[in-house]
Design a protein that fits this description.
The protein has 221 residues and is mostly helical. Helix content is 78%, strand content 0%. The protein contains nine helices and no strands. Helix 4 packs parallel to helix 7. The chain is globular.
Length: 221
C-alpha cells in the first residue's frame, strides 16, 4: 500500500511539474509577442489551453509568473560565480586569462541552462520603468537576486585585482562593462537570428573573440 501511495505521489508531482512548465511556456510565448504590459492572464490561459483559475493555483499574479521566467538565469549565473569565488579564495588561478575565461564560461553555462530566461531578463533590463510596474513582492525578488549577482561579481573582480590577476581599476565600472558586453552580444545574436542560422554557434564564436579582447585589455602583461 505504501509503495502504491508513493507511485501516486510521484505521478501527481510529474503532472504538476508538467502543468507548470506548460504555463511557463505559454507565458513566455505571449510575453515575447505582446510585451509584459499588454499581456493578460486570460491570454496566457488561452495559449496554455487551461482555465485562468488553474494558473492561479500555481502563480498568484502575472508579476509572479514573469519573475519565474526571469529568475532561472540570474540564479544560475550567481551559482556559477560562487564557483569562481571558491577558486579565487583557494588561489587556484595562476593568471588572469583563465579567470576571464571562467567569467565567459559562467555566462555561457547560464545561457545554456535557461536561454529564454536570459531573453526575458534582457528585455526586462532594457525597460527601466518596468520594475515599477511589478508588485512589491516581485520587485523585491528580482532586485534581491540581481543585487546579489552584481555585488558578487564586483567582489570577485576586487579579489582578482588584489591577487594581481587583473589590472587595478574600478570594479563597478568593470563589472558593468562585462555585463553590458555579455548581454549586448547575446541580444545582437538574437536580432540576427533566422531559421537558417545557427545562433548558438555564432554566439560561442563571438563570445570567444570578446573574451580575448577583454583579457588583452584587463590582464597584466
Amino acid at each position: 500500500m505504501q509503495k502504491h501511495q508513493e507511485v501516486i505521489r510521484e505521478r501527481k508531482k510529474r503532472e504538476k511539474d508538467q502543468r507548470i512548465q506548460g504555463i511557463l511556456a505559454a507565458a513566455k510565448k505571449v510575453f515575447f509577442s505582446k510585451g509584459y504590459l499588454r499581456t493578460t492572464m486570460d491570454e496566457i490561459a488561452f495559449e496554455a489551453e487551461i482555465s485562468k483559475p488553474t494558473i492561479y493555483q500555481y502563480f498568484r499574479t502575472k508579476d509572479e509568473l514573469y519573475s519565474a521566467l526571469m529568475l532561472p538565469f540570474l540564479e544560475e549565473f550567481g551559482s556559477q560565480f560562487e564557483k569562481i569565488e571558491k577558486k579565487l579564495d583557494a588561489r587556484r588561478y595562476t593568471n588572469g586569462k583563465s579567470l576571464v575565461k571562467d567569467f565567459f564560461r559562467a555566462f555561457l553555462k547560464s545561457y545554456e541552462v535557461s536561454p529564454d530566461s536570459l531573453r526575458v531578463a534582457n528585455s526586462f533590463f532594457q525597460q527601466s520603468d518596468l520594475i515599477n510596474e511589478l508588485n512589491a513582492d516581485s520587485r523585491l525578488t528580482i532586485s534581491t537576486r540581481g543585487k546579489y549577482d552584481f555585488e558578487l561579481a564586483r567582489d570577485l573582480l576586487e579579489k582578482a585585482m588584489d591577487q594581481g590577476l587583473l589590472r587595478k581599476m574600478s570594479s563597478y565600472a568593470l563589472s558593468d562593462i562585462i555585463w553590458g558586453l555579455l548581454l549586448g552580444i547575446t541580444q545582437v545574436m538574437d536580432m540576427k537570428a533566422t531559421r537558417l542560422t545557427n545562433t548558438d554557434k555564432y554566439l560561442r564564436t563571438t563570445l570567444a573573440e570578446a573574451e580575448k579582447l577583454l583579457a588583452s585589455a584587463i590582464v597584466p602583461r
